[in-house]
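Milestone 3.1: sequence recovery, worked example.
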């Protein structure tokens, strides 16, 4: 009688688990095979990857090599998959190759009753994952009702480690107040961003601040004292940095290039949306219908582009926003992204050491400044002392700014904080997060979009998805069509999704 063969598969889902758990699973599987007189021909293992998705490199390699054995042996069925549809699909593929999945620790007979038992185990495994997500959401809603930090870093604030509530970061708050005053007095958002970049302010990733950063600050109601998270608002939940009158004055400012009676249209995907036909950037444009209704589109330029029909702004932006929210609700993808962020930016001790050095320099300069002031009060003043006092003021200003930046970096953000925010910290109304932070590029084809994100998949490539658009010739409430009625350009054909620009 020919001896039966098996491959072993092990997995754990969280980077907080021990890698030794893989060894433990494989050990139990080896003991099971030895007891059942089954020869082991290969072993596969995925580290820190959830079973609720099939995006697991070793799992896919095992499926591709299915005919090499008679069995796939796992420690428990939930190690194979936590999604009952994926589990059924891949088990069917294996059965067609003559391969059966066995659990080393769950006794399931190869009978109809055993199949029912196995199905119940898969249902319970999937229920566990969904119930955990519900409990996390409930806990974060409880935090929001108490105006506590749910993992969302806001410039101008730190987090109290005891209460988990926001507290003012003096250096950053002073920067915020100055930005509002500059905006009220006629400075453009671009000029404010350039000024703050020149002063050394950076984003949380260490990059110089830009227009989007300044625009978000000037439009964030949290600075008036309003806490907001996931649809929950708590008036007075944030320490107030600017009063409501100042915020209202800033909101009422009309940029110099904009006429007072003109409503400029906002196209959130400007600079990120590309034509799938020719690969050229698409720009926002608008037109007025016969009844005076204004319609907004994204268009590909005639010169240098293909001049394809214009596409309704609402169709593209709403579809992409829904796709982003769906992807960000996937705990496995978000945990993988959070793990990469923590690995890339967590450098424990370095910021604190620099902070201590900055504090020492500030203290020394303040002592010197105090001595100069005391001497001046006693009548001992000369040009050298005045010049030195001005130098100290400039040095202190730069050091206080740097101290604020370091304070924001030292504020501890855990992997769970990042996952919680990406899954529950924003909704469709938070367009700055969706189109500014999450979306990297979007390629618009005739009936679908290829969307690339600002985070990477399990093999290190930028994550991307392809999703279908709704019927484009659909009449919408109030009139108008998803496509402009100019007609399609002649001779234009849809290229393959692997555009050179998209895959570079």
């Amino acid at each position: 009688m020919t001896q039966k063969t098996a491959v072993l598969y092990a997995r754990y889902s969280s980077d907080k688990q021990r890698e030794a758990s893989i060894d433990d699973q494989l050990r139990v599987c080896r003991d099971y095979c030895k007891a059942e007189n089954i020869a082991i021909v290969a072993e596969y293992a995925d580290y820190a990857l959830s079973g609720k998705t099939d995006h697991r490199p070793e799992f896919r390699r095992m499926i591709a090599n299915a005919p090499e054995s008679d069995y796939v042996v796992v420690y428990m069925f939930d190690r194979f998959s936590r999604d009952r549809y994926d589990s059924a699909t891949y088990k069917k593929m294996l059965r067609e190759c003559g391969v059966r999945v066995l659990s080393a620790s769950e006794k399931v007979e190869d009978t109809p009753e055993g199949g029912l038992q196995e199905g119940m185990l898969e249902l319970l495994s999937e229920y566990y994952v969904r119930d955990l997500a519900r409990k996390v959401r409930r806990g974060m809603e409880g935090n929001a009702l108490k105006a506590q930090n749910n993992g969302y870093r806001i410039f101008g604030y730190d987090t109290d480690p005891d209460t988990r509530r926001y507290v003012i970061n003096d250096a950053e708050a002073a920067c915020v107040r100055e930005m509002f005053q500059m905006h009220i007095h006629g400075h453009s958002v671009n000029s404010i961003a350039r000024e703050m970049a020149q002063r050394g302010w950076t984003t949380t990733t260490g990059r110089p601040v830009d227009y989007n950063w300044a625009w978000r600050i000037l439009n964030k109601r949290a600075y008036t004292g309003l806490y907001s998270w996931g649809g929950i608002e708590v008036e007075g939940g944030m320490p107030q940095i600017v009063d409501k009158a100042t915020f209202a004055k800033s909101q009422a400012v009309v940029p110099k290039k904009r006429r007072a009676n003109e409503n400029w249209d906002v196209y959130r995907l400007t600079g990120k949306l590309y034509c799938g036909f020719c690969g050229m950037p698409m720009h926002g444009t608008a037109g007025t219908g016969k009844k005076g209704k204004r319609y907004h589109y994204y268009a590909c330029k005639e010169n240098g582009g293909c001049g394809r029909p214009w596409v309704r702004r609402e169709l593209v932006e709403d579809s992409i926003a829904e796709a982003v929210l769906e992807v960000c609700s996937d705990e496995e993808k978000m945990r993988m992204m959070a793990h990469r962020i923590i690995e890339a930016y967590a450098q424990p001790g370095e910021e604190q050491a620099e902070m201590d050095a900055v504090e020492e320099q500030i203290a020394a300069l303040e002592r010197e400044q105090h001595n100069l002031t005391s001497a001046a009060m006693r009548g001992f003043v000369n040009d050298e002392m005045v010049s030195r006092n001005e130098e100290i003021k400039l040095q202190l200003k730069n050091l206080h700014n740097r101290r604020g930046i370091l304070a924001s970096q030292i504020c501890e953000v855990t992997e769970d904080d990042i996952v919680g925010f990406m899954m529950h910290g924003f909704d469709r109304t938070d367009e700055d997060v969706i189109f500014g932070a999450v979306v990297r590029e979007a390629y618009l084809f005739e009936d679908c979009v290829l969307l690339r994100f600002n985070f990477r998949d399990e093999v290190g490539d930028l994550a991307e998805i392809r999703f279908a658009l709704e019927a484009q010739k659909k009449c919408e409430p109030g009139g108008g069509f998803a496509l402009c009625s100019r007609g399609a350009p002649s001779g234009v054909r849809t290229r393959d999704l692997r555009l050179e620009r998209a895959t570079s």
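The first strand starts at residue 5 and ends at 11. Confidence is low (pLDDT under 50) at residues 15-20, 471-504.
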